[in-house]
Amino acid sequence: MTDARTGHDEAAPARLAIFTDFDGTLVEIAERPEEVKVAADLPRQLGRAAEQLDSAFAVITGREIDDIDRFLSPLHLPIAGAHGSQRRRADGAVEGLDDDIVRAADELARRLEPLLADNPGLIVERKRGAVALHYRQAPELEQACKVAMNEAARFDDRFTLVEGKMVIEARPQGLSKGTALRAFMREPPFAGRIPVFIGDDTTDEDGFVAAQELGGVGIKLGSGPTAARMRIADVASVHALIQGLGDLSFREETGGRQHQHV
Ligand SMILES: O=P(O)(O)OC[C@H]1O[C@H](O[C@H]2O[C@H](CO)[C@@H](O)[C@H](O)[C@H]2O)[C@H](O)[C@@H](O)[C@@H]1O
């Protein structure tokens, strides 16, 4: 029998689709965006889990897709980047934004240049269709950054501002980690599975809500208010959870009879 709300076949074993955030979830937070350290074995571990899940494994991140490819090389996963602005589907096709909104994001970043010139501790990350203003090296400038971002985004109502860990970002209106998760869930190999989304930050909340509305679960790393129904302690536990869910899926599917790559 099929559950009318979620589309899951109730007679079949529960098949999972795993979605995970990157910064603060798969890797520890670092002082600067380019300084994150990826555990040496992480790409192999994630690749193994993806194989066990029949490729129903994706990263949903605020970073650009290329960034994640570089950090997880040689692994190429389905990825939603820049808070849902870019998406590489499981079949490898990439969805992006119109050039117009990409140019508008560049323009928004240019409006921040005077603030940067006066405050070398600040970092602006320019993405295709999104902009992040980091103040981790200058926490006393948090309020000034918020004011500057609001001012820079004021000219273009196609952007929404979102706050993350020591960062304020502009992303296109109507796009989020939630819209990205829902888009994956409409396509193979994710469709018909139970979504699990793991994240640590406020920008992950849309992903938790989407996963739960689709009959799955959100898992929040760390403390703080959240819509997620479950919590997890730290990055090491996320690695162990992904490995465990991969193993479980493999056993459910095959009864452990098939040969598995390690
Ligand atoms: O959605 P995520 O994968 O968690 O990405 C969110 C943002 O992460 C990065 O910034 C954060 O991590 C940096 C490195 O640890 C840290 O220095 C910074 O303070 C954090 O905000 C990334 O640079 C952003 O582009 C992502 O949107």
Automatic annotation (TrEMBL):
Cofactor dependence: Mg(2+)
- Broadest EC class assigned to this enzyme: hydrolase
* Pfam families, alphabetized: Trehalose_PPase
Keywords attached to this Swiss-Prot or TrEMBL record, sorted alphabetically, are: Hydrolase, Magnesium, Metal-binding
Q: What is its EC number?
A: 3.1.3.12
Pathway(s) the chain acts in: Glycan biosynthesis; trehalose biosynthesis
The protein's matches in InterPro entries, at most eight in alphabetical order, are given as: HAD-like_sf, HAD-SF_hydro_IIB, HAD_sf, OTSB-like, Trehalose_PPase
Q: Which domain of life is it from?
A: Bacteria
Q: What reaction gets catalysed by this protein?
A: alpha,alpha-trehalose 6-phosphate + H2O = alpha,alpha-trehalose + phosphate
- Its signal peptide is none
Q: Which family does it belong to?
A: Belongs to the trehalose phosphatase family.
| UniProt function note | Removes the phosphate from trehalose 6-phosphate to produce free trehalose.
NCBIfam families with a match to the protein in the record: HAD-SF-IIB, T6PP
Report what the protein is called. Answer: Trehalose 6-phosphate phosphatase
Organism, scientific name? Devosia nitrariae
The opening ranks of the lineage are: Bacteria, Pseudomonadati, Pseudomonadota, Alphaproteobacteria, Hyphomicrobiales
